[in-house]
Write a structure and sequence with these properties.
It is built from two helices and six strands. By secondary structure, it is α+β, with helices and mostly antiparallel strands. It has a six-stranded mixed β-sheet, with helices on one face.
Length: about 120
């Protein structure tokens, strides 16, 4: 069974407002879940672009309190994941994570934020 992800996001509407959504998606990984949701949103009649999304992998057994879910951001510079507060050098191995590193530490429940630390 494929992992399930909670996708939350917002987008611009044709009327000039912002629309928001929250959906569960089954996919192989967070990128596939985000891609699947982006394709679905693009078919909505009122969608006008500027899509922002985040993916949270839904745990198989463990439930994290909403305020304690580990959050990471995907780096546009090195392609790895960092903590949102990280502003250092991407070559610092202690602050550069892969999905498997995070799953080993935190299990299969963590959030990838849409923010990109290399553009802050």
């Amino acid at each position: 069974m494929a992992p399930r992800f909670l996708i939350t996001g917002s987008y611009a509407t044709l009327a000039g407002n912002r629309g928001a959504f929250r959906r569960e998606v089954a996919a192989a990984d967070h990128r596939a879940a985000l891609d699947a949701m982006a394709a679905k949103v693009a078919t909505w009649k009122r969608y006008a672009g500027k899509l922002d999304m985040s993916a949270l992998q839904i745990p198989a057994a463990k439930n994290w309190p909403a305020d304690r879910v580990p959050v990471f951001v995907e780096c546009g510079c090195c392609g790895h994941l960092h903590r949102p507060t990280f502003t250092g050098d991407c070559r610092d191995d202690s602050e550069r994570f892969t999905e498997s590193d995070i799953e080993d530490r935190f299990g299969n429940s963590w959030l990838i934020s849409g923010a990109n630390p290399s553009t802050r």
